Amino acid sequence: MATAAAHKVQGITELLEMVLYELPPIDILVYQRVCQRWKDIITHGEKFQQALFFKPATNGTLKPRKERTFRELASSVEATWADASKPQRIFLNPMLAELIDAVKNGRDKKWTSQNASWRRMLLTRPSSDETCVMATDLDFLQGYDQGVMNGLLTLPTFYNQFPSINTSTPELDSKNATLQGTAVALYEVGAAFGALACFFLGDRFGRKWTTSGGAAVVLIGVILQTTSFQLAQLIVARIVTGLGVGSFTANIPTWVGESSDAHQRGGLIMIEGSAAIFGVMFVGWLEFGFYFIRQNEVAWRFPIAFQAILPIIVMIMVPMLEESPRWLVSKDRHQEAAQVLSKLEDAPADSPAVTSRLQSIRASIELDGQGHSSHPFARTPNRHLNRTLIAIAVNILAQMSGVNVITFYSNTIFQRDLGYSPVLSRIITSCMQTWQFLMATLAVFLIDRFGRRKLLITGAFLMCVANAGLTGLRSHADNATAAGCSLIFYFLALAAFPIGLFLIPFMYSSEIAPLRIRSQVTAMSGFSNWMFNFLVAEVTPVAFESIQWKYYLVYVCTNLVSVVTFYLFLPETMDRTLEDVDAFFLGSRNMLQPVKIAKSMPAGVAGEWDLREKVAEEDEKVEKS
Q1: 56: which DSSP letter?
Q2: How confident is the model over 211-223, as pLDDT tens digits?
């Protein structure tokens, strides 16, 4: 009888519309894929489509955003029921109440990763708009400062101020090339140790104040760079700036990842990557403009000084931001964590959603604590050693893709090796950075559709192809046609890197690490990333002087190693809570099993069942397979 009544209720279109009007947009997107009856109502209703996708009505008008609400639509439907006999029976009908509860309670189970889309990222609740703005600002700063030296190295007023790093003509000896590589690359050394500092500071001071301290260090470094008159001061200033920027790369992905929903995390962090590459692009065009006043010191001092505004903005914003709820739980500040989670979930602090998420985080920390060691290289049941090695390896391999050969030295390569004019070299470099920014923006929409694993593998494979193409074409250095064709592979490399290898390694390191050692793991992975960044920047000028085009063969080999490593050892973390990722490793017995478990384990297990039971189940599955 109850079944018959349920079918009868589902046959009343107006009643189902009222149920749907009560739901948030993400629920509606789910249930149009789950129930054909509801899909028909949603897809054929003009008002529904207008409210859901913010489409203009047929007359071309669009109401203000605040007025585009489901409550307004629901009230119009309720008005049509006002004249019905005994309308209170409709609203008090227990079958209707049961139907509404079933819709709301079933949302998480129906929201599967296969249906990921741009709508899902944009319509879900943001983790924290202010945190994302701050993170975007810092990543813009990272990209800006990393790209600022590229256009200055061939600027007359710059190398006249610092003649010992002038390599503008072939007559200058290799000592200048070595010193230039060192001057540029010591920024990466500073960044490496800035990231490593988070090993000690990240868990002690939290995500907020570690970020604020890094911004203050960057501001000091920028002031020192701008006022440099000797090479020694410039080098020290670059190291100081790198210290602050390096702390951002280790701390910010962790902060954003710990403060965002599993379905949003990838897209939000990739937006930061897009901002970083926008910084590289922006400084490229800025330096191109200042090139035309190249006889004035302003041409190189202003581009360096301009970035000072960014850390100032961050230091103003940080006190107003929320701390990471997972860090708060790790410090037994559960009440504060519940308040932060209530804002993220848009629900009261004592609501089931907040309570469940808080319990999941606490359970994960307790399980990790049973390993009896908080050392990142310890052999614990939670596989600290395995996860630390993965985080470090993915960052090293990303930097060994060869992209920094292009990013740091493109102007030098185009002018000295390919024979382009200074103006044309700068135009091509700026166009490549614009292209790289567009590809980074594309990655925002790809990351939560295809996942981290597929993009990492694809990025490494395409970088291998690009370096192979450059090996062949650059071996004919005197051929103008070959030189022109080599630009195709430069552009291919600057598409592959931002899509798969730029910010995903930083993000993946924070996702793969257990909370107990997350700051240490992200610090070491950031240190590895920057140190190999330094290695490439230091070696490249000398390598081009000695082995020339054969230098690209090195990166063909390293990218092949990356493809194999990513395929065998990296489990997919897309749409997984950070507690789910813990379950991958708790249930594995060797370095290959987390990939298999990630493919078979349903999403959200840490939040719906006891994690210990789920791990035992996955252990049994792996044994049988």
Answers
A1: -
A2: 889 999 999 999 9
